[in-house]
Amino acid sequence: MDILNAFVALLNYVMIPATAYGAQLALGALGVTLVYGILRFSNFAHGDTMAFGTAMVILATWGLQALGVSAGPLPTALLALPLGIAATALLVLGTDRTVYRFYRREKAAPVVMVMVSVGVMFVMNGLTRFVIGVDEIRFDDGVRFLISAREFKQATGLSEGLALRGTQVLTVVTAGLMVWALFWFLNHTRTGKSMRAYSDNEDLALLSGIDPERVVAVTWIIAAALATTAGTLYGLDKAFKAFNYFHLLLPIFAASIVGGLGNPLGAIAGGFLIAYSEVSITYAFKKVLGYLAPEGWEPEGLVQLLSTEYKFAVSFAILVVVLLFRPTGIFKGKSV
Amino acid sequence: MKKLLMASAAGLALVGAASAEEIKMGISLGFTGPLESMAGPMAQGAELAFKEVSDSGLLLGGDTIVPVRSDSTCIDAAAATAGVERLITVEKVNGIVGGMCSGEATASLQNVAMPNGVVMISPSATSPALSALEDNGLFFRTAPSDARQGEVMADIILEHGINSVAVTYTNNDYGKGLADSFASAFEAKGGTVTINAAHDDGKADYSAEVGALAAAGGDALVIAGYVDQGGSGVLRGALDTGAFDTFAFPDGMVGQKLVDDFGSEIDGSFGQNPASGDAGRDRFLELASAAGFDGTSAYAAEAYDAAALMMLAMQAAGSTDPAVWKDKVMDVANAPGEKILPGELAKALEILKNGGDVDYVGGASVEMIGGGESAGSFREVTFENGEMKVVGYR
């Protein structure tokens, strides 16, 4: 019996990575859910908006680094974030003006809007590649590890290492701050309240004098801010590669639908649910059980429920089950 | 009507004249797709050999070679098959350098090349499955099978004093073939493989894969993946969580990019990739730089060798018909005979013309074994102080 080692192994390989990944998904899902709640369509271009935003942040980071500016122990990219958000907001506002507004005025069906967003996705996809290329880019600087596995082993004498990266803590903290700011904005400001009113009942909101174009513009700006932040945190934690953001779209959608599309709280819960299920259901519990089992009872097999190839299948199995039994998601969102 | 008749007569005359002196040869490589950066130098390598022979004027009756390129995409078997079909039925090529990747090469060979009786020599398809493929003697490769790489890697790992490893591979023909051949070779030599798990390329997160590998344990992690794909993702995750300190890298991972991205973090790790330490390689590099392309690019030398072997076999058989010259490929590739290095194709053609025998060595030390694949020489490298060092060849 060695509870401490078992706990550290679980913490190191399941809890910490899944929490950081969950926070990244949650931020992405918040953006998707916001656009769905207020503009009433599933925005497939969200993944590539994240990629574009991150590309802008990287360019600004390089600029700052060339000027000799740094944030000390924190990544320089944090300083560049506002610039990236501004550039991305301009892009999505421009897209809204040139593409989405036309279909909104036509009162196009949601499925048409979804197809339009797929088109926008491909254009943004190409744009990002033109701007920054297709290669993998690492742009994290500052302190990489708060706790490194080797130091932890030496300091505690445990046989299991524990690694905690600066970017993981940063991801969770930033995600928390963003969520708090978003909720505060939606609940306590006039613009936030008008957005909620517009989301609840468009006609009633228009009758009470809410300017729809303003609500739409603010929504896009917030979505751009969420997308850029999520993309940058993901890029800092792993690495930036334009193509990976396209793949990120699937778990993000799974997260927002499981949580309940249009419900911000659901997006956060969905993000963590998907991340934890992806990592923990395919985790091989051999080591953990080996520590916990009495002498001579250690498992010889891997004690793995599913091979890691099936991790996406896990998210989608959850998605199907939720849609079957609670079509509006775990937290009551709009029906899809 | 008269004009039309004259025009078609002129056209026929042109076609007739062309077929008497020009031999068309296909090059089917993945000019677009996941290995597009390698395809350019490979095609240039093959074209370099074709040009060398054309310029010599010694092939058969002074024939010249016209290379025709086709995009195999590396991943889309249907597109590759359509491309090879065009080469054979429209361009009427007498042989094809390609395909590039194992899956696509198998599909185009079985669906088009074999029914039409055209020879394909692949410079870079390395899946062990291709060794056992029923090919009517029409398929050869100048790259070694991954079965051989599996053996070499098993030896290298055991010589480092490591007896238990975890293996992760990229989920395709290349990764699975290499991982399986390595696992069986390693276990046959007394080692233990704790887990043999796939990872998919281009995924958002590799925590789950790293967690499973770490739980299975082992003294080192073998990453049979691509350096610009999931292979790097798994490596990054394993380093960050402290799951493994030592890594073994096969050919898909060994490259300058690995050193650039990971630097001294992978000190103490090692790997191997196909490359020969012979004089032939230096000769090829000189020729390549004179022709204006990078000869060190992966499989460029193998592509040159594939093209050269085809023409030497034609000369030896005295025919451009693949059904005839396919039987001569093994003869010109192996001993006995005069050793032929890159740039000496004219000499080889002359010897063959006079009824002599040649042993083609080329840029990649070609030695054909079994069903027509290169025995393969591998370069062993280690990583020290953030640099890649060549330890030796085997």
UniProtKB/TrEMBL annotation, chain A:
Membrane topology listed for this record: Multi-pass membrane protein
Principal location listed in the UniProt entry: membrane
PANTHER family: BRANCHED-CHAIN AMINO ACID TRANSPORT SYSTEM PERMEASE PROTEIN LIVH, HIGH-AFFINITY BRANCHED-CHAIN AMINO ACID TRANSPORT SYSTEM PERMEASE PROTEIN LIVH
Gene Ontology molecular function: L-isoleucine transmembrane transporter activity; L-leucine transmembrane transporter activity; L-phenylalanine transmembrane transporter activity; L-valine transmembrane transporter activity
Single biological process term from Gene Ontology: L-alanine transport
Keyword flag Transmembrane: yes
Protein name according to UniProt: Amino acid/amide ABC transporter membrane protein 1, HAAT family
Compartment annotation: Cell membrane
InterPro entries: ABC_transp_permease, BCAA_transport_permease
Organism of origin: Phaeovulum vinaykumarii
Signal peptide: none
Family statement: Belongs to the binding-protein-dependent transport system permease family. LivHM subfamily.
Keywords assigned: Amino-acid transport, Cell inner membrane, Cell membrane, Membrane, Transmembrane, Transmembrane helix, Transport
Top-level lineage group: Bacteria
Annotated transmembrane regions: 20-39, 51-71, 77-96, 108-132, 168-186, 215-236, 305-325
GO cellular component labels: plasma membrane
From TrEMBL, chain B:
Family membership: Belongs to the leucine-binding protein family.
Keyword Metal-binding: no
PANTHER family: LEUCINE-SPECIFIC-BINDING PROTEIN (PTHR30483), PERIPLASMIC BINDING PROTEIN OF ABC TRANSPORTER FOR NATURAL AMINO ACIDS (PTHR30483:SF6)
The keyword Ribonucleoprotein is annotated on this UniProt entry: no
InterPro entries: BCAA_transport (IPR051010), Leu-bd (IPR028081), Peripla_BP_I (IPR028082)
Biological processes, Gene Ontology terms: amino acid transport
Residue span(s) of domain Leucine-binding protein: 22-323
Keyword terms: Amino-acid transport, Signal, Transport
Origin organism lineage: Bacteria, Pseudomonadati, Pseudomonadota, Alphaproteobacteria, Rhodobacterales
Signal peptide: 1-20
Protein name from the UniProt record: Amino acid/amide ABC transporter substrate-binding protein, HAAT family
Pfam families associated with the record: Peripla_BP_6
Domain of life: Bacteria
Matches recorded under Gene3D superfamilies: 3.40.50.2300
